[in-house]
UniProtKB/TrEMBL annotation:
ATP binds at residues 9-16. The lineage of its organism: Bacteria, Bacillati, Actinomycetota, Actinomycetes, Mycobacteriales. It holds the Pfam family AnmK. Residues 348-390 are annotated as: Disordered. It catalyses: 1,6-anhydro-N-acetyl-beta-muramate + ATP + H2O = N-acetyl-D-muramate 6-phosphate + ADP + H(+). Catalyzes the specific phosphorylation of 1,6-anhydro-N-acetylmuramic acid (anhMurNAc) with the simultaneous cleavage of the 1,6-anhydro ring, generating MurNAc-6-P. Is required for the utilization of anhMurNAc either imported from the medium or derived from its own cell wall murein, and thus plays a role in cell wall recycling. Belongs to the anhydro-N-acetylmuramic acid kinase family. This is Anhydro-N-acetylmuramic acid kinase.
Length: 390
């Protein structure tokens, strides 16, 4: 099957679209990555999305409008990508834009992603897998990090390795030798606090390449205050989001503390590096494979390498998946698994006692015939490098 995966993460930058050709071959899933692209949200839409995040309040009519507009934007993106590349796909998997992930203590109770899939069906005629996280939460899981599904299959081998995604939130999957349980959880903020600070200090959505942070000095007193966050001490599995690390998070915790712009950005960069390294180091891995928008921040990557040394730190590109689109390929994989009635989580990775087939399927224009359920695969083989990122 040729599957289109569409993802918009907690950074809310826009849509990542990836198209892959997926095949089941015994206990292997083989994927030929075909092409991928990034499509920014229109700035007015992104501003409205950010404005509904906690601790803000909103209205049901605004939520309805955003659900429709995100669905329409996603539909246009998928249709345009397929038309521009001359490819006929079989299935679309759309994650939607997370606006709330409801966690009470250590238990996830619900999650909300916007982006009405009917618009994608109408624009493409293809069946669409959506609402991917909810079933895992209903089964007792965290609904996150679902990246653990791809990571566990992709990094399977004889040594313990970690996959790290640096989006708005950082998540990690630790994959050991055959028979070892997969460990996966959100470590805390990656880019979300940095982006809020950059918007306030620089007047733009991010500190490009960490250039301003590189001119600052890490303030140990500020770092100590931020590291007091109880979330970091919780045991895995655990998940978090902008509900905790919201737009007022840093200001609320630094009341009365004076810190200038470059020093604050440097300290927030170090916060991500410290919390990731502390989480990963105690899991005794030999390599960390990094993806997500944080890969473009050389100051953050340098801090991670320093904190994780002597553990090797590489990007996902070295293993065949582009760092900026890896999660879109993940969504495509999850859609493929759902179509084949294969559970979309690795046992124990999200905390659910019983893995479930994820999501709901909106039928396309053609009659829908699902294949017979298949056995869960044991390995993901990336057969060749992506052709291009447009």
């Amino acid at each position: 099957m040729i599957v289109v995966g569409v993802m918009s993460g907690t950074s809310m930058d826009g849509l990542d679209v990836a198209v892959g050709d997926f095949t089941l071959d015994g206990t292997d899933v083989i994927v030929d990555p075909l092409f991928d692209t990034g499509i920014p949200w229109p700035e007015p839409l992104r501003a409205r999305l950010l404005s509904v995040l906690p601790p803000a309040r909103t209205t049901v009519d605004e939520m309805c409008a955003l659900d429709t507009e995100i669905g329409q934007s996603t539909a246009r993106a998928v249709a345009d990508v397929l038309a521009d590349n001359g490819v006929k796909a079989d299935l679309v998997a759309s994650h939607g834009q997370t606006v709330f992930h409801w966690v009470d203590g250590v238990r996830a109770l619900g999650t909300l992603q916007l982006g009405q899939p009917a618009w994608i069906v109408e624009a493409t005629g293809l069946p669409v897998v959506s609402d991917i996280r909810a079933r895992d939460i209903a089964a007792g899981g965290q609904g996150a990090p679902l990246a653990s599904t791809l990571d566990a299959l992709w990094l399977a081998g004889d040594s313990r390795r970690a996959a790290l995604n640096l989006g708005g939130i950082a998540n990690v999957t630790v994959v050991g030798a055959p028979g070892e349980p997969v460990v996966a959880f959100d470590t805390g903020p990656a880019n979300c606090l940095l982006d809020v600070a950059a918007e306030r200090i620089l007047g733009c959505g991010f500190d490009e390449d960490g250039r301003i942070a590189a001119t600052g000095t890490v303030r140990d007193d500020v770092l100590e205050l931020l590291l007091a966050e109880p979330y970091y001490g919780l045991d895995a599995p655990k998940s978090t989001g902008r509900e905790l690390f919201d737009r007022s998070y840093v200001a609320d915790r630094l009341v009365g503390v004076g810190v200038d712009g470059p020093d604050l950005l440097a300290t927030l960069t170090e916060l991500t590096a410290v919390t990731v390294a502390d989480a990963v180091r105690r899991l005794d891995v030999t390599e960390v494979v990094v993806s997500g928008g944080g890969v473009r921040n050389s100051t953050l990557m340098s801090a991670l390498r320093r904190r994780l040394a002597p553990t090797a730190v590489v990007t996902s590109a070295e293993r065949g998946l582009p760092p900026l689109s890896k999660e879109a390929y993940l969504v495509a994989l999850l859609g493929f698994l759902t179509w084949n009635q294969i559970p979309g989580v690795v046992p124990g990775a999200t905390g659910s006692p019983q893995p479930r087939v994820l999501g709901r399927i909106s039928p396309g224009d053609a009659p829908m015939r699902l294949p017979e359920p298949s056995e869960p695969p044991r390995r993901l083989v990336v057969r060749r490098k992506p052709l291009r990122r447009t």
